[in-house]
Amino acid sequence: MGHPTRLRILELLKRSGCCVSEIEQRLELRQSNVSQHLRVLRDCGLVSVSREGQTVCYRLNEPLVSPLLASLEELS
User: Fold this and answer.
1) I want to staple 41 with a disulfide (CB 3.0 to 4.6 A). Which of 7, 32, 46, 58 is the partner?
2) Residue 15: what pLDDT?
3) Which of 33, 15, 13, 36 shows the shortest CA–CA distance to 24?
């Protein structure tokens, strides 16, 4: 979770769920890079995934992530 890109993705998803292409555009990252980070976050249970046709969208696992992000904001 400590990778800066993963933290940026979590901050983005905190506002609302996003599809991979939207994350890619907003953070100016390649799709493969975004997908790798999302896989780590999903495997840790920090995000959930849904499919809408060929579109893959992610949301925060709110009960788990919100307290973690709040703690990180206090530290910075």
Assistant:
1) 46
2) 83
3) 33
Tell me which amino acid residue 22 is.
Answer: E
- CATH for 4-63, options being 2.40.160.20, 2.160.20.10, 3.40.50.1100, 1.10.10.10: 1.10.10.10
Kindly state the tokens that stand for 29: 């990252």
Domain boundaries, the chain: 4-63
| Residue 34 CA, distance from chain mean position | 9
Positive or negative, the CA dihedral 9, 45, 18, 22 is positive
- List the pLDDT tens digit at each of the 76 positions of the chain: 578 999 899 989 988 889 999 999 999 999 999 999 999 999 989 999 999 899 999 999 877 666 776 666 666 6
Residue 33, phi then psi, degrees to nearest 5: -65, -45
